[in-house]
Amino acid sequence: MPTIKPKRNSSKKAFIITKAAKLFREKSFSGTSMRDIAEEVGVEAASLYNHIQSKAEILQIICFRVANILIDHFEKIQAKEQHSIDKIKAILRFHIRHMINDYDEVQVADREWRRLSEPYLSNYKVQRRNYHHGIAMLIEEGVQKKEFKAIDPPTAVLIMLHAISGIESWHHSKQKISAEQLEKDMVVMLVEGLMI
């Protein structure tokens, strides 16, 4: 029977999750079976259960890993003594890089989180809401300080995060600009819309 052969410095469980994230993105969570994951990993389906309990556990790990990375970064930026505009730029840059570098997992977390079971679904909704609310509060702070236009902060957050999720098109593009140029251009376009 074949064995799971992860890359060096990668645990077997992490290797399985990486492969599963790719399948969840390509075929959806519902459209992917444990057999599909086993084939992608290169083992019998039964041997997956030595490392992972279920497909649902994989989704939980992916969603909360993405959420925790974004929230941890947000909290570090929020704690800095900076203008609101600089904080927003730093948050956007990080989120864009995360979408570029960890595409499969970020897309799965963004699209498939509704498939989480309770209590994970409720917990994830809270984390997601707190992240959105935190960014909205930074925008509100900028509006109050006359750094930003008098716009509706939740709407601005919705537009920004929706634009970042659109990086999926960049991943599929045959002729694409560099990741660095994409990040730079997106931050300019998204932030200039806020500025007075």
Task: Determine the mean pLDDT.
Answer: 91
**What is the string of helix and strand elements?**
HHHHHHHHHH
CATH superfamily of the largest domain: Tetracycline Repressor, domain 2
Structural class estimated from helices and strands: mainly alpha
The rounded Rg comes to 19 Å
Task: Please give the largest β-sheet.
Answer: none
* Rough outline: elongated
| Estimated helix fraction | over 70%
Low-confidence stretches: none
What is the count of structural domains? 2
Helix count from the secondary structure assignment? 10
CATH architecture of the largest domain: Orthogonal Bundle
Strand content: under 5%
- The CATH class assignment of the largest domain is Mainly Alpha
Number of distinct beta strands: 0
Distance between the termini: 64 Å
- Fold-level CATH name of the largest domain: Tetracycline Repressor, domain 2
